Amino acid sequence: MKYTPEAIHQALVERKAAVIGECIFLKVTGEVIGEYACSQYTSPQYDYPPPHSGSSRSFIVDDEGSPLALPEPLPITSPLAEVISISSAANVPAGSNAGRIARAVSNPLFHALQALRIEGIPTPWLDDIIFGAICGGPGIINGNLSVAYADVKKLLSLPEISVRMAAEYLLNHDHEPMSTRQLQRVVKAARFALRGVALHLERHPRILDSIGMMIDFDPLWPTASASADAIDAPLKPDADRRLQALEMRSQGIPIKETARRLGASKNTIKRWEQEALAA
């Protein structure tokens, strides 16, 4: 019996036939009903056109972060002039002392922030502090944050917060070095956030206790004054405050009250006690 290609295809679809090698046979009777004819494929000859080398426009980023198109270079129709090398020392302008000295703020919290990240401890409060620092520092431009949250967070993980340090670690959205103006915005937000983080950690000592760290927050405050009802209104040198703190603690005065009277942080009082016990 001769089978048409349609009948063979229908038998394969209905699983009444099977294929072994190049032969198609019925499963019930074993009758060969067809055979595949294989031939070598030869691709047609086709000439592909060469790729078109179109010119693409180049852009640069100005100090405000806006893209500026560069003018397209004109084709060279005349021979190039001879290149004369000039010493680079002759092009260096004389140094100037004008302007403000670049500030560099030491970051004593970067070890703690790195430890919290390594230990996998959630820090939702850090997000609120950083966003608040951006809004209260460099501010919002055209309804958008003027600096990126990730850039501020990266600066908080460095031992120093300065424009020089930020220039080594931060890039703009085009993965190119940031402009000086944008770096200044990020540094300003990071300085705002640094004191916010310090205030939160000082008010929630259990966070530092969970990673076994102690931090002296006093250097972060530019001016420290006792409360209105403090015993000693002017601050005393650290040596005098330390002796008075140890004396007050030996009398059983709580750490919180001792810190309030002396205008110091509770972690500083604890550190003084530990140093006295270890001596």
TrEMBL record:
Pfam families: HTH_23. It comes from the Bacteria. This is Helix-turn-helix domain-containing protein. It comes from Aquipseudomonas ullengensis.
